[in-house]
Amino acid sequence: MSPTTVNTFDLSGKVAIVTGSNTGLGAAMAVALAAAGCDIVGVSRAHAGATAARVEALGRRFADVRADLASIASVDDIVRAALEAFGRIDVLVNNAGIIRREDALEFGEDDWDAVMDVNLKSLFFLSQAAARQFVRQRSGGKIINVASMLSFQGGVRVASYTASKSGVLGLTRLLANEWAARRINVNAIAPGYMATANTAALREDAQRNEEILGRIPAGRWGVPDDLAGPVVFLASSASDYVHGHTLAVDGGWLAR
Ligand code: NAP
């Protein structure tokens, strides 16, 4: 690669908001963005101590913002906190997400609303708040949503999760259509089966674990660091002409 090509992945001086950055995939993406040069605004309900320490060890700054994305009441506060901490926003990673498992015949309204509120409604309104700031800054910006294999497939026993993640794929396209001309790139990453708290129940079920592993061409569960390269690519100028795309990072799962 020429030096020019390499430099397009440089994020020095950029500010990234990462929701759910205290653990799992969000922590890995926050650290990857920091390694590429970003200061990080981490959003979660719990303390983000370990991620903050990893970001600061890389010489970047970390602002710990506590917010509950079960409601959209805090989306403007999140943007305000980012501006107070670092003065601008360049990247938003909508990673926070939850899952509820139940047969569709039994699935309850609480499990529907809880998942849709965090995974889809807050994602939209936080994207809107960030995009308004990108427009005020006249800077353009990058929004990276976290989708799922269930943006492409149906799954079982996860009705609201499938609806929300299929919605994430559609919204990613809609927002790209509306905002591409404003130099705002909206794309998504669809992780495959990754070893985090979110999938602990699947890995503990020996039969499900074997079934899942058996159809992953790469022959292993994904790990959070598998998202490092893709998130830096989608946050950087290397992806300036990529709009509305959902990038599967799945060890080949969808290719089967
Ligand atoms: P995880 O370890 O369970 O982490 C979920 C994150 O979301 C945590 O940081 C959590 O922080 C945050 N969060 C949940 N509810 C929240 C709320 N109400 N307000 C603010 N933050 C909230 O899961 P993960 O595997 O890293 O998943 C991250 C994303 O990837 C999710 O969107 C998930 O659907 C998606 N995904 C995961 C996989 C996988 O195989 N692991 C595959 C496809 C997609 P707090 O609870 O501390 O607030």
UniProtKB/TrEMBL annotation:
Pfam families: adh_short_C2. Its EC number is 1.1.1.127. It catalyses: 2-dehydro-3-deoxy-D-gluconate + NAD(+) = 3-deoxy-D-glycero-2,5-hexodiulosonate + NADH + H(+). It comes from the Bacteria. Transmembrane segments: none annotated. Signal peptide: none annotated. GO terms for molecular function: 2-dehydro-3-deoxy-D-gluconate 5-dehydrogenase activity; 2-deoxy-D-gluconate 3-dehydrogenase activity; NAD binding. InterPro entries: 2-deoxy-D-gluc_3_DH, NAD(P)-bd_dom_sf, Sc_DH/Rdtase_CS, SDR_fam. Keywords: NAD, Oxidoreductase. Belongs to the short-chain dehydrogenases/reductases (SDR) family. This is 2-dehydro-3-deoxy-D-gluconate 5-dehydrogenase. It comes from Paraburkholderia sprentiae WSM5005. The gene is kduD.
